[in-house]
Amino acid sequence: MVSALKDKNILLGITGSIAAYKAAEIIRLLRKRGAQVYPIMTRAATYFVHPITFQTLASRRVVLELFRQEDKIKHISLAELADALLIAPASANIIAKLANGIADDILSTVALATKAPVLIAPAMNHQMYVNPILQQNIDKLKRVGVKFIGPEKGQLASGKVGIGRMSEPSRIVECLESLIQCRDEFKGKCFLVTAGPTRERIDEVRFISNYSSGKMGYALAEEGICRGARIILVSGPTSLVPPAEAEFYRVESAEEMRKKVMEEFARVDGVLMAAAVSDFRPERKREGKIKKSVGERFTLELRQNPDILSELGKRKEGKILVGFCAETENLEEEAKRKLREKNLDLIVANDITLEGAGFGVDTNIVVLIDRYGNLTHLSKRSKREVARAVWDKIKEITKNLYR
Length: 403
Ligand code: C5P
Prior knowledge:
By secondary structure, the chain is α/β, with parallel strands linked by helices.
């Protein structure tokens, strides 16, 4: 698949933060996707990483100075050639400068002069990040269309845990790719995404679950955010880090997931049910732990869980409903039946017997079927790329709905 970043000119602003070393990986990922990278470093950034590192990776001289005799018009020409400006890591200082129109070095001057989309990945100490002045600066920039990714919660350079850690390079590059492709496509819209498995309690120490990793649902949430949607992510237990920008709810059982989804349904424009909801749960609620001494044979009675998506399909209320189905045989017939019976707009079907599809892996092979019977077969690709195709389809559906 050709990346939206291919042959694009990406200005990469690197500012003074310990996360500056991660910019090396960003350059590598951008170049792998075919982008031309123009690194611009602030003076503070050069204390963390020597420009030669970025120069080597970008195969281009790093821009460091505003006033060099031979580079007189550089800030304007850079600003004009840019398809996007990414600032990663972005310090509190550069955010403050951008929010106030200050142009006192090459990076802030280019930022002020460019018409290209700007994506900022902040990285700083927790206290600096939560400082109300910084938050006001971020809000101000968001209002004029500047995009932010992260920061995330995690271990900071100080050794403390808090919010301020720069998002991972792969996440930043994915977001930039989506931004270039489809900026603000879902601005003002809110979607609910479910992800992961559910856990159905047997006793105090055991549960029934499935192999879902949550990767497909989290990729859908990430992609939705990058396209400007507000995302409510309702997730069963997974080991994944939810995107910082999502409104995140963790649930355990199908019943808990149902409750949360129903609560939020009224305020969303659509629901993407990527969760692998357990169809059954143990009938009895048991205290303590079932003992081995119950006998050689032990029967656990199960009761069917409510089908959340079917319930949403009955309500519908003009919202977009996307379902997922994992099958081992008769994929298309089964998917079409579910689409019809659950009153969906779109179903994403995958044959989990294929290598590189389904639970646990990073790739998927799916067919998208909409309510008009249009089929889109997608060969093996990353779950993020599948997520892109799903959102593209949702866009198409919304256009038809609101026409
Ligand atoms: O019928 P099946 O379980 O194969 O349908 C899968 C779709 O229905 C998925 O989108 C899944 O999230 C949703 N589902 C649900 N509630 C259930 C079971 C599945 O919403 N109890």
